[in-house]
């Protein structure tokens, strides 16, 4: 196995220099151009003495942002992606944390970046640094000195305290993830990816690195297409995209609004989904539309480098059933632990804890939160061994498949009963005419609030829910919306919904 993600680039550059690697609707780059552009960025770092440091990449989503990522790695550093759609306060907190000597921008973000306190760092235009002559000696030295536990990126996730956490991944965990994911999903040189996720999330690992490994092609789908389902499917067909790895909300946006009666994906053969529960009703609509495609449910936290578990959907699921997240990829293990750090009994619920090489290095410049989440395996008292406590609740079904139940903070106590809000969502999603649902708990008022998109009026939905839910699980308030708010990554924005509920 490789010990540096750059090996993928060097190998494919020799094999397929003229094939299109990445396209974004404006630019297309071949593997030869990927090699040359990333080499110029890396040379800028080596010639300016920037080495083994975090380098912020503040660019709009484009193929050139990916080139900046690779260039930072070639220069012996690790990239920190940020985006202008992030709140300004969050951006400043990230800059405060990493204290990067350099912020790589494009023409659309340079002026914005200059308004922040860069902690002594400087702004440089990507369009300028790609003119840097190759520093072969510097690039070779950075490559030769690299080891597989060196950082490759810092991706910031939301923290419960409001301060984002910078997850540091290394070459070893990324390479192992790419290798295992590629084998499970069957990527090859004919794979054409349709990327949905922003590039400042680790979700994009599913496309950008396998593209290098196999000499595949990735299209960065314009964000605007995800609000017009027919246009989105037409884009998939136009570019003969055969592989998508999307959040569930993006898939549901297509199936729930009758898109398949007008247009269907013609080339899809591999569909992977994750981050949220895929309602069985919506899954069946997809299965009917693309019956020859494989469907794989993926699960995993950012702290464990992409996805940890997979389940190739191999049977029918009835409404109300939850599609499992399956089993861990090789070289990983899932432990379900109780509050005392002991394994739960078969069939019982426990916190999902993960061990294996997929664990990242922890949180950047944040030793306390790292120590809270990356802990000694309580089942092993003989030598140091970290596990990651996900904060997710799961159980193993009778087939030995892991089933996601909820987040620890998604379980509430209401009217004397312990309730999983996700269970309410699953049940309500089964009601005919309901397209999307989200349930939150207003702790101040002690009320369950259900938001939904669908054809039923609020009164009609309440009547239907009374036939499906016990009284103590019935929402205290039901709100119909034209569309549910989504995060930048396409997941349901529950923070916004909570804020609406308290107004």
Describe this structure in words.
By secondary structure, the protein is an alpha/beta fold. The protein is 31% helix and 26% strand. It contains 16 helices and 25 strands. The chain has a 5-stranded mixed sheet. Strands 16, 17, 18, 19 and 20 form a 5-stranded antiparallel sheet that branches. Helix 12 links the parallel strand 12 and strand 13. Helix 1 packs across helix 2. The chain is globular and about 70 Å long. The model has no long low-confidence stretch (mean pLDDT 92).
Q: Let me know the average pLDDT.
A: 92
Overall geometry comes to: globular
Radius of gyration: 23 Å
- By DSSP, the count of extended strands is 25
What's the tally of helices?
16
Percent of residues in helical segments? 25-40%
Question: What portion of residues belong to β-strands?
Answer: 25-35%
Decide which structural class fits the backbone: alpha/beta
Note the main sheet: 5 strands, mixed
Distance between the termini: 54 Å
| Lateral strand order in the biggest sheet | 11-12-13-14-15
Low-confidence stretches: none
